[in-house]
Amino acid sequence: MQRIINFILSRRNTFLYLLLLFIGMMLTVQSHSYHQSKYFNSANWVSGQFYSISGGIGAYFDLKGENEKLQEENRRLRELLGTLEEVDSLQLAEDLRVYEYISARVNKNSITSYRNYLTINRGAAHGIEEDMAVITPLGVLGIIENTSQNFATVQSVLNDRSSINAIIKGTDQFGSLRWDGEDFTRVQLYDIPKLVPIKKSDTIMTGGMSSIFPPNIPIGVVVDYKLPKETSFYEIEVQLFNDMSNVRNVYVIRNNQREEILNLQAQTEDVE
Amino acid sequence: MLNSMISINITRFMLLVLAQVWILNNVNLLGYINPMIYVLFLYWYPMRQNRSVFILTSFALGFVIDIFSDTMAIHAISCMTLAYIRPLLLRFCYGNNYEFQGFSYTNTTRLQRITFIILLVVIHHLIFFSLEILSFSHFVIILKKVLFTSGISLFLCLLISSLFAKPS
Fold it and tell me: What are the record keywords, sorted (chain B) (predicted)?
Protein backbone atom coordinates (compact mmCIF):
# COMPACT_ATOMS: atom_id res chain seq x y z
CA MET A 1 0.00 0.00 0.00
CA GLN A 2 2.79 2.32 1.02
CA ARG A 3 4.44 1.65 -2.31
CA ILE A 4 1.34 2.42 -4.31
CA ILE A 5 0.88 5.70 -2.49
CA ASN A 6 4.52 6.58 -3.01
CA PHE A 7 4.23 5.72 -6.67
CA ILE A 8 1.19 7.93 -7.10
CA LEU A 9 2.80 10.77 -5.16
CA SER A 10 6.00 10.62 -7.21
CA ARG A 11 3.95 10.88 -10.40
CA ARG A 12 1.30 13.23 -9.14
CA ASN A 13 1.79 15.66 -12.01
CA THR A 14 1.16 12.98 -14.60
CA PHE A 15 -1.92 11.81 -12.77
CA LEU A 16 -3.16 15.37 -12.40
CA TYR A 17 -2.59 15.90 -16.11
CA LEU A 18 -4.44 12.73 -17.06
CA LEU A 19 -7.32 13.61 -14.77
CA LEU A 20 -7.72 17.09 -16.24
CA LEU A 21 -7.30 15.70 -19.75
CA PHE A 22 -10.09 13.24 -19.04
CA ILE A 23 -12.41 15.99 -17.76
CA GLY A 24 -11.63 18.20 -20.73
CA MET A 25 -12.12 15.38 -23.22
CA MET A 26 -15.45 14.44 -21.63
CA LEU A 27 -16.71 18.01 -22.07
CA THR A 28 -15.42 18.26 -25.62
CA VAL A 29 -16.43 14.87 -27.02
CA GLN A 30 -19.83 14.97 -25.39
CA SER A 31 -20.49 18.30 -27.08
CA HIS A 32 -19.38 16.92 -30.43
CA SER A 33 -21.92 14.15 -30.31
CA TYR A 34 -24.88 16.13 -29.15
CA HIS A 35 -25.17 19.60 -27.72
CA GLN A 36 -23.04 22.27 -26.22
CA SER A 37 -22.66 21.86 -22.49
CA LYS A 38 -25.59 23.20 -20.50
CA TYR A 39 -23.42 25.07 -18.01
CA PHE A 40 -20.14 26.08 -19.62
CA ASN A 41 -21.23 28.43 -22.39
CA SER A 42 -21.14 32.15 -22.93
CA ALA A 43 -24.77 32.64 -21.88
CA ASN A 44 -23.86 32.21 -18.22
CA TRP A 45 -23.97 35.14 -15.86
CA VAL A 46 -20.36 36.34 -15.86
CA SER A 47 -19.56 36.05 -19.55
CA GLY A 48 -23.11 37.10 -20.42
CA GLN A 49 -22.67 40.38 -18.54
CA PHE A 50 -19.21 40.84 -20.00
CA TYR A 51 -20.43 40.43 -23.56
CA SER A 52 -23.43 42.59 -22.80
CA ILE A 53 -21.03 45.46 -22.04
CA SER A 54 -18.72 44.84 -24.98
CA GLY A 55 -21.68 44.28 -27.32
CA GLY A 56 -23.21 47.53 -26.14
CA ILE A 57 -20.00 49.40 -26.99
CA GLY A 58 -19.68 47.62 -30.34
CA ALA A 59 -23.27 48.46 -31.26
CA TYR A 60 -22.44 52.18 -31.34
CA PHE A 61 -19.86 51.77 -34.04
CA ASP A 62 -22.24 50.43 -36.66
CA LEU A 63 -25.37 52.33 -35.73
CA LYS A 64 -25.56 53.99 -39.13
CA GLY A 65 -25.29 50.78 -41.15
CA GLU A 66 -27.72 48.98 -38.86
CA ASN A 67 -30.24 51.81 -39.18
CA GLU A 68 -30.04 51.57 -42.95
CA LYS A 69 -30.60 47.82 -42.85
CA LEU A 70 -33.63 48.19 -40.58
CA GLN A 71 -35.05 51.01 -42.66
CA GLU A 72 -34.66 48.91 -45.79
CA GLU A 73 -36.52 46.12 -44.05
CA ASN A 74 -39.28 48.53 -43.02
CA ARG A 75 -39.60 49.67 -46.62
CA ARG A 76 -39.93 46.08 -47.82
CA LEU A 77 -42.52 45.28 -45.18
CA ARG A 78 -44.49 48.44 -46.00
CA GLU A 79 -44.55 47.44 -49.65
CA LEU A 80 -45.90 44.05 -48.66
CA LEU A 81 -48.48 45.72 -46.50
CA GLY A 82 -49.53 47.91 -49.42
CA THR A 83 -50.12 44.88 -51.62
CA LEU A 84 -52.65 43.52 -49.15
CA GLU A 85 -55.70 45.14 -50.67
CA GLU A 86 -57.28 46.17 -47.44
CA VAL A 87 -55.95 45.70 -43.96
CA ASP A 88 -58.20 43.33 -42.14
CA SER A 89 -59.59 44.97 -39.05
CA LEU A 90 -60.16 41.60 -37.44
CA GLN A 91 -57.24 40.84 -35.12
CA LEU A 92 -56.08 37.27 -34.80
CA ALA A 93 -56.47 35.95 -31.27
CA GLU A 94 -53.17 35.52 -29.41
CA ASP A 95 -53.27 31.74 -29.36
CA LEU A 96 -54.10 31.42 -33.06
CA ARG A 97 -50.92 33.14 -34.17
CA VAL A 98 -48.42 30.50 -35.25
CA TYR A 99 -45.19 32.50 -35.28
CA GLU A 100 -44.18 35.10 -32.73
CA TYR A 101 -41.17 37.39 -33.15
CA ILE A 102 -38.88 38.55 -30.35
CA SER A 103 -36.27 41.16 -31.18
CA ALA A 104 -32.75 40.84 -29.78
CA ARG A 105 -29.23 42.18 -30.14
CA VAL A 106 -26.09 40.15 -30.83
CA ASN A 107 -23.51 40.64 -28.09
CA LYS A 108 -20.89 38.21 -29.28
CA ASN A 109 -20.29 36.75 -32.71
CA SER A 110 -17.71 34.36 -34.08
CA ILE A 111 -17.01 33.17 -37.61
CA THR A 112 -13.51 31.66 -37.58
CA SER A 113 -14.17 28.53 -35.59
CA TYR A 114 -15.43 25.25 -37.01
CA ARG A 115 -18.42 25.49 -34.71
CA ASN A 116 -19.53 29.07 -34.39
CA TYR A 117 -21.87 30.39 -31.73
CA LEU A 118 -23.39 33.80 -31.10
CA THR A 119 -24.63 35.23 -27.83
CA ILE A 120 -27.75 37.42 -27.76
CA ASN A 121 -29.15 39.67 -25.05
CA ARG A 122 -32.47 37.88 -24.56
CA GLY A 123 -33.00 34.76 -22.50
CA ALA A 124 -35.49 32.57 -20.72
CA ALA A 125 -36.94 35.63 -18.96
CA HIS A 126 -38.04 36.96 -22.36
CA GLY A 127 -39.62 33.68 -23.41
CA ILE A 128 -36.72 32.26 -25.38
CA GLU A 129 -36.30 28.50 -25.45
CA GLU A 130 -34.02 25.96 -27.02
CA ASP A 131 -34.54 25.27 -30.76
CA MET A 132 -36.12 28.54 -31.76
CA ALA A 133 -35.17 30.09 -35.09
CA VAL A 134 -33.02 33.23 -35.27
CA ILE A 135 -33.06 35.49 -38.33
CA THR A 136 -31.72 38.91 -39.29
CA PRO A 137 -33.46 41.48 -41.51
CA LEU A 138 -31.54 39.91 -44.43
CA GLY A 139 -31.96 36.21 -43.83
CA VAL A 140 -31.36 33.12 -41.73
CA LEU A 141 -28.85 33.27 -38.88
CA GLY A 142 -29.17 30.15 -36.71
CA ILE A 143 -30.97 28.24 -33.99
CA ILE A 144 -31.10 28.85 -30.21
CA GLU A 145 -28.94 26.33 -28.43
CA ASN A 146 -28.80 27.30 -24.74
CA THR A 147 -30.57 29.87 -22.62
CA SER A 148 -29.86 31.45 -19.27
CA GLN A 149 -32.08 33.94 -17.46
CA ASN A 150 -31.06 36.96 -19.56
CA PHE A 151 -28.93 35.59 -22.40
CA ALA A 152 -28.96 32.84 -24.99
CA THR A 153 -26.40 31.23 -27.27
CA VAL A 154 -27.23 30.71 -30.94
CA GLN A 155 -25.83 27.93 -33.08
CA SER A 156 -24.87 29.82 -36.23
CA VAL A 157 -25.47 28.43 -39.73
CA LEU A 158 -21.66 28.45 -39.81
CA ASN A 159 -21.47 25.37 -37.62
CA ASP A 160 -20.82 21.84 -38.83
CA ARG A 161 -23.69 20.54 -36.69
CA SER A 162 -26.16 22.95 -38.22
CA SER A 163 -28.58 21.46 -40.73
CA ILE A 164 -31.46 23.56 -42.04
CA ASN A 165 -34.28 22.53 -44.31
CA ALA A 166 -34.13 24.63 -47.50
CA ILE A 167 -35.70 24.88 -50.97
CA ILE A 168 -34.93 26.65 -54.21
CA LYS A 169 -37.42 29.46 -54.67
CA GLY A 170 -40.28 28.36 -56.90
CA THR A 171 -39.77 24.61 -56.43
CA ASP A 172 -40.99 22.14 -53.85
CA GLN A 173 -37.96 19.86 -53.56
CA PHE A 174 -36.15 20.43 -50.31
CA GLY A 175 -32.59 19.75 -49.31
CA SER A 176 -30.50 20.33 -46.24
CA LEU A 177 -28.22 23.29 -45.74
CA ARG A 178 -24.86 22.58 -44.10
CA TRP A 179 -21.46 24.20 -43.75
CA ASP A 180 -18.09 22.71 -44.71
CA GLY A 181 -16.05 25.01 -42.46
CA GLU A 182 -14.15 26.73 -45.26
CA ASP A 183 -15.61 30.12 -46.17
CA PHE A 184 -17.80 32.19 -43.86
CA THR A 185 -19.70 33.77 -46.75
CA ARG A 186 -20.80 30.45 -48.25
CA VAL A 187 -22.79 27.42 -47.15
CA GLN A 188 -23.65 24.23 -49.03
CA LEU A 189 -27.00 22.79 -49.96
CA TYR A 190 -27.24 19.00 -50.37
CA ASP A 191 -29.92 16.46 -51.28
CA ILE A 192 -31.67 18.48 -53.99
CA PRO A 193 -32.67 15.86 -56.60
CA LYS A 194 -31.30 16.30 -60.12
CA LEU A 195 -34.70 16.65 -61.73
CA VAL A 196 -35.03 20.11 -60.23
CA PRO A 197 -34.20 22.84 -62.75
CA ILE A 198 -31.45 24.98 -61.29
CA LYS A 199 -29.33 27.87 -62.44
CA LYS A 200 -26.89 30.32 -60.96
CA SER A 201 -28.37 33.26 -59.00
CA ASP A 202 -31.43 31.23 -58.00
CA THR A 203 -32.63 32.21 -54.54
CA ILE A 204 -32.51 29.70 -51.68
CA MET A 205 -35.14 29.94 -48.93
CA THR A 206 -36.17 27.93 -45.90
CA GLY A 207 -38.64 25.14 -46.62
CA GLY A 208 -41.69 24.46 -44.52
CA MET A 209 -40.51 21.01 -43.47
CA SER A 210 -39.02 21.93 -40.13
CA SER A 211 -40.86 22.91 -37.00
CA ILE A 212 -38.21 25.56 -36.31
CA PHE A 213 -38.08 27.94 -39.28
CA PRO A 214 -41.18 29.41 -40.91
CA PRO A 215 -41.20 28.79 -44.69
CA ASN A 216 -39.87 31.32 -47.22
CA ILE A 217 -37.21 33.10 -45.17
CA PRO A 218 -34.39 34.05 -47.55
CA ILE A 219 -31.02 32.34 -47.10
CA GLY A 220 -28.81 33.16 -50.10
CA VAL A 221 -28.20 32.72 -53.82
CA VAL A 222 -26.74 29.86 -55.83
CA VAL A 223 -23.24 30.75 -57.00
CA ASP A 224 -22.11 27.35 -58.16
CA TYR A 225 -23.45 23.81 -58.40
CA LYS A 226 -22.31 20.41 -59.54
CA LEU A 227 -23.89 17.02 -60.04
CA PRO A 228 -21.53 14.22 -58.93
CA LYS A 229 -21.72 11.28 -61.38
CA GLU A 230 -22.43 8.57 -58.84
CA THR A 231 -25.38 10.29 -57.16
CA SER A 232 -28.58 11.89 -58.30
CA PHE A 233 -28.35 14.86 -55.95
CA TYR A 234 -26.83 18.27 -56.52
CA GLU A 235 -24.10 19.83 -54.44
CA ILE A 236 -24.89 23.54 -54.42
CA GLU A 237 -22.72 26.42 -53.22
CA VAL A 238 -24.85 29.13 -51.66
CA GLN A 239 -23.73 32.70 -51.06
CA LEU A 240 -25.41 33.95 -47.87
CA PHE A 241 -27.44 37.17 -47.93
CA ASN A 242 -26.18 37.89 -44.43
CA ASP A 243 -22.75 39.31 -43.89
CA MET A 244 -21.99 36.92 -41.05
CA SER A 245 -19.10 39.01 -39.78
CA ASN A 246 -21.44 41.92 -39.15
CA VAL A 247 -24.77 41.03 -37.54
CA ARG A 248 -26.33 43.11 -34.81
CA ASN A 249 -30.13 43.25 -34.74
CA VAL A 250 -31.88 39.89 -34.93
CA TYR A 251 -35.32 38.33 -34.43
CA VAL A 252 -36.01 35.14 -32.55
CA ILE A 253 -39.02 33.23 -33.86
CA ARG A 254 -41.20 31.13 -31.63
CA ASN A 255 -43.39 28.51 -33.31
CA ASN A 256 -46.45 28.07 -31.15
CA GLN A 257 -47.39 24.82 -32.84
CA ARG A 258 -43.97 23.24 -32.45
CA GLU A 259 -44.83 21.29 -29.33
CA GLU A 260 -47.92 19.86 -30.94
CA ILE A 261 -45.99 18.84 -34.05
CA LEU A 262 -43.24 17.18 -32.00
CA ASN A 263 -45.75 15.32 -29.84
CA LEU A 264 -47.52 14.05 -32.90
CA GLN A 265 -44.28 12.93 -34.52
CA ALA A 266 -43.19 11.18 -31.33
CA GLN A 267 -46.51 9.31 -31.19
CA THR A 268 -46.17 8.23 -34.81
CA GLU A 269 -42.67 6.95 -34.22
CA ASP A 270 -43.76 5.06 -31.13
CA VAL A 271 -46.32 3.15 -33.15
CA GLU A 272 -43.71 2.12 -35.64
CA MET B 1 8.88 38.49 -3.36
CA LEU B 2 6.52 35.54 -3.53
CA ASN B 3 3.48 37.78 -3.20
CA SER B 4 4.60 40.04 -6.03
CA MET B 5 5.14 36.99 -8.22
CA ILE B 6 1.61 35.76 -7.53
CA SER B 7 0.04 39.14 -8.18
CA ILE B 8 2.03 39.59 -11.39
CA ASN B 9 0.83 36.24 -12.65
CA ILE B 10 -2.79 36.94 -11.71
CA THR B 11 -2.66 40.27 -13.54
CA ARG B 12 -1.07 38.57 -16.55
CA PHE B 13 -3.78 35.89 -16.44
CA MET B 14 -6.56 38.44 -16.55
CA LEU B 15 -4.96 40.67 -19.17
CA LEU B 16 -4.33 37.72 -21.48
CA VAL B 17 -7.93 36.48 -21.11
CA LEU B 18 -9.27 39.98 -21.82
CA ALA B 19 -6.98 40.42 -24.82
CA GLN B 20 -8.05 37.06 -26.19
CA VAL B 21 -11.81 37.31 -25.84
CA TRP B 22 -12.20 41.02 -26.41
CA ILE B 23 -9.71 41.73 -29.18
CA LEU B 24 -8.13 38.68 -30.73
CA ASN B 25 -11.33 36.62 -31.05
CA ASN B 26 -12.69 39.41 -33.25
CA VAL B 27 -9.75 39.79 -35.60
CA ASN B 28 -11.17 37.39 -38.25
CA LEU B 29 -8.26 38.01 -40.61
CA LEU B 30 -9.06 36.57 -44.08
CA GLY B 31 -12.20 35.16 -42.51
CA TYR B 32 -10.57 32.41 -40.48
CA ILE B 33 -7.46 33.63 -38.65
CA ASN B 34 -7.83 34.49 -34.97
CA PRO B 35 -4.38 34.62 -33.36
CA MET B 36 -3.93 33.18 -29.86
CA ILE B 37 -1.27 34.79 -27.71
CA TYR B 38 -2.10 33.46 -24.26
CA VAL B 39 0.66 30.84 -24.65
CA LEU B 40 2.87 33.71 -23.49
CA PHE B 41 1.54 32.96 -20.01
CA LEU B 42 3.41 29.66 -20.17
CA TYR B 43 6.49 31.38 -21.56
CA TRP B 44 6.59 33.90 -18.70
CA TYR B 45 5.54 31.59 -15.87
CA PRO B 46 8.44 31.22 -13.39
CA MET B 47 10.65 28.15 -13.78
CA ARG B 48 11.05 26.49 -10.41
CA GLN B 49 7.54 26.51 -9.02
CA ASN B 50 5.18 23.74 -8.06
CA ARG B 51 4.33 21.94 -11.29
CA SER B 52 0.88 20.84 -10.13
CA VAL B 53 -0.10 24.44 -9.52
CA PHE B 54 1.27 25.35 -12.94
CA ILE B 55 -0.80 22.67 -14.68
CA LEU B 56 -3.94 23.67 -12.76
CA THR B 57 -3.43 27.36 -13.54
CA SER B 58 -2.97 26.65 -17.24
CA PHE B 59 -6.10 24.55 -17.26
CA ALA B 60 -7.99 27.39 -15.60
CA LEU B 61 -6.62 29.92 -18.11
CA GLY B 62 -7.73 27.80 -21.04
CA PHE B 63 -11.09 27.01 -19.50
CA VAL B 64 -11.98 30.65 -18.82
CA ILE B 65 -11.24 31.45 -22.47
CA ASP B 66 -13.29 28.39 -23.48
CA ILE B 67 -16.34 29.60 -21.61
CA PHE B 68 -16.12 32.99 -23.28
CA SER B 69 -15.67 31.59 -26.78
CA ASP B 70 -18.11 28.64 -26.56
CA THR B 71 -15.41 26.11 -27.42
CA MET B 72 -16.03 23.54 -24.67
CA ALA B 73 -12.62 22.59 -23.20
CA ILE B 74 -10.40 22.86 -26.27
CA HIS B 75 -8.35 25.83 -25.10
CA ALA B 76 -8.05 24.20 -21.67
CA ILE B 77 -6.75 20.88 -23.00
CA SER B 78 -4.20 22.41 -25.35
CA CYS B 79 -2.98 24.93 -22.78
CA MET B 80 -2.67 22.33 -20.04
CA THR B 81 -0.86 19.85 -22.30
CA LEU B 82 1.64 22.57 -23.10
CA ALA B 83 2.16 23.24 -19.39
CA TYR B 84 2.72 19.54 -18.81
CA ILE B 85 5.40 19.19 -21.48
CA ARG B 86 7.06 22.57 -20.85
CA PRO B 87 10.05 21.08 -18.92
CA LEU B 88 10.72 18.89 -21.95
CA LEU B 89 10.65 21.84 -24.31
CA LEU B 90 12.84 23.88 -21.96
CA ARG B 91 15.42 21.11 -21.86
CA PHE B 92 15.29 20.84 -25.63
CA CYS B 93 15.91 24.56 -26.10
CA TYR B 94 18.26 25.41 -23.23
CA GLY B 95 19.83 22.11 -22.24
CA ASN B 96 19.98 21.50 -18.49
CA ASN B 97 20.68 25.18 -17.82
CA TYR B 98 17.11 25.98 -17.00
CA GLU B 99 17.24 23.98 -13.78
CA PHE B 100 19.90 26.24 -12.25
CA GLN B 101 19.05 28.83 -9.63
CA GLY B 102 19.97 31.92 -11.62
CA PHE B 103 18.36 30.96 -14.91
CA SER B 104 16.50 33.71 -16.71
CA TYR B 105 15.68 34.40 -20.34
CA THR B 106 18.05 37.37 -20.38
CA ASN B 107 21.07 35.03 -20.17
CA THR B 108 19.98 33.04 -23.22
CA THR B 109 20.50 33.71 -26.88
CA ARG B 110 17.75 35.18 -29.00
CA LEU B 111 17.70 32.08 -31.17
CA GLN B 112 16.94 29.89 -28.15
CA ARG B 113 14.09 32.12 -27.05
CA ILE B 114 12.59 32.22 -30.53
CA THR B 115 12.83 28.43 -30.87
CA PHE B 116 11.08 28.04 -27.54
CA ILE B 117 8.20 30.35 -28.51
CA ILE B 118 7.88 28.68 -31.92
CA LEU B 119 7.60 25.26 -30.25
CA LEU B 120 5.03 26.54 -27.75
CA VAL B 121 2.85 28.18 -30.40
CA VAL B 122 2.99 25.42 -33.01
CA ILE B 123 2.31 22.58 -30.57
CA HIS B 124 -0.51 24.54 -28.97
CA HIS B 125 -2.15 25.34 -32.32
CA LEU B 126 -1.76 21.78 -33.57
CA ILE B 127 -3.55 20.35 -30.53
CA PHE B 128 -6.13 23.12 -30.59
CA PHE B 129 -7.24 22.79 -34.21
CA SER B 130 -7.12 18.99 -34.20
CA LEU B 131 -9.48 18.98 -31.23
CA GLU B 132 -11.65 21.71 -32.66
CA ILE B 133 -12.38 19.82 -35.85
CA LEU B 134 -11.90 16.33 -34.39
CA SER B 135 -12.00 14.47 -37.67
CA PHE B 136 -9.19 13.18 -39.86
CA SER B 137 -11.16 13.68 -43.05
CA HIS B 138 -10.57 17.41 -42.64
CA PHE B 139 -6.81 17.05 -42.37
CA VAL B 140 -6.12 19.72 -44.97
CA ILE B 141 -8.26 22.33 -43.20
CA ILE B 142 -6.50 21.55 -39.92
CA LEU B 143 -3.07 21.99 -41.52
CA LYS B 144 -4.11 25.18 -43.25
CA LYS B 145 -5.47 26.68 -40.04
CA VAL B 146 -2.44 25.61 -38.00
CA LEU B 147 -0.03 27.04 -40.54
CA PHE B 148 -1.58 30.45 -41.04
CA THR B 149 -2.81 31.04 -37.49
CA SER B 150 0.56 29.97 -36.06
CA GLY B 151 2.27 32.46 -38.34
CA ILE B 152 0.24 35.41 -37.07
CA SER B 153 0.27 34.24 -33.44
CA LEU B 154 4.04 33.78 -33.58
CA PHE B 155 4.54 37.25 -34.94
CA LEU B 156 2.41 38.77 -32.15
CA CYS B 157 4.00 36.62 -29.43
CA LEU B 158 7.55 37.53 -30.48
CA LEU B 159 6.59 41.17 -30.66
CA ILE B 160 4.95 41.23 -27.24
CA SER B 161 7.61 39.08 -25.55
CA SER B 162 10.35 41.42 -26.74
CA LEU B 163 8.32 44.51 -25.79
CA PHE B 164 7.86 43.33 -22.23
CA ALA B 165 11.24 41.69 -21.79
CA LYS B 166 12.90 42.52 -18.48
CA PRO B 167 15.95 44.73 -19.00
CA SER B 168 19.02 42.77 -17.94
Answer: Membrane, Transmembrane, Transmembrane helix
Q: Rounded distance, CA A207 to CA A168, Å?
A: 9
Provide the CA B66 distance to its chain's centre, in angstroms: 14
Q: Identify any residues that bridge with A253 across adjacent strands, giving them in sequence order.
A: A101, A133
Class of domain A164-240: mainly beta
Q: Any residues with CB less than 8 A from the CB of A228 and at least 6 apart, and which?
A: A235
A38: amino acid identity, one letter: K
Look at residue B168 in the predicted model and tell me its pLDDT: 45
Most B-contacting residue of A19, A20, A22 (CB-CB within 10 A), to test interface: A20
List, for residues A153-196, the tens digit of each pLDDT value: 999 999 888 888 888 888 888 889 988 888 888 899 988 888 88
In CATH, what number does A45-83+92-155+249-267 get? Answer: 2.40.10.340
- The set of residues, in sequence order, having a beta carbon less than 8 Å from that of B158 and lying 6+ positions away, is B114, B117
Structure confidence by residue, pLDDT tens digits, B157-167: 999 888 887 65
CB contact under 8 A, B80 and A17: yes
- The Cα–Cα gap between A113 and A182 comes to 10
Whether A122 and A43 have beta carbons less than 8 Å apart is answered as no
The 3-state secondary structure of A209-266, one letter per residue: CCCCCCCCCEEEEEEEEECCCCCCEEEEEEEECCCCCCCCEEEEEEECCHHHHHHHHH
What are the structural domain ranges in chain A? 2-33, 45-83+92-155+249-267, 164-240
